[in-house]
Amino acid sequence: MTTLKSKLKEDLTTAMKARDELTSSTLRLTLTAITKEEVSGKTARELSDDEVQKVIAKEAKKRREAAEAFAQGGRTEQAERERAEGELLDAYLPKQLTDDELRAIVEAAVEEAKAAGAEGPRAMGAVMKIVSPKLAGLAEGGRVAGAVKKALAG
Fold this sequence. Notes:
Blueprint: H1 3-17, H2 21-39, H3 49-72, H4 76-90, H5 99-115, H6 124-135, H7 141-153
C-alpha cells in the first residue's frame, strides 16, 4: 500500500475514534474515490503516491467548486462544510505555488519556447508542454493556463 493511502487510512481511524464526523466522512469519500480509480480499467492495480495525490487534488477541487455553487445559491452552511472539507484535503497535497513563483516558472518556459521558435498566442501548447511536468501538483491547471496566456500576451 502506498504511504499516502496508508496515511489517509490511519487518519480516518483516528478521526473515527475521536468522533470527528467531518474528517471521517471526508476521508471515507476520498478513500472511496481512490479505490474506484484503482479498480477502473481492465485490471485492478495499486495507485502510486503521485496518482493518489491527483485523486485527492481532484476531490479537493470538487469541494471548492461545490462550495462556490452553494455560496451562490445562498446555502452558506453547506458552502462552509464544503470549504472545510476542501481545506482538510489540501493538507494532504503539496503546498501550492504563489502567483510570483508561478509567474517566474512560466516566464522561463516562455523564453525556452521562444528559443525553440514558438511565438505569440500559438505558442500556448509548446509552453504548456514545458510547464506542465514542472508544475504537476504544485498549481491548478487553470491557474497555469491563465499565467501562460498572460505571459504570451504581454
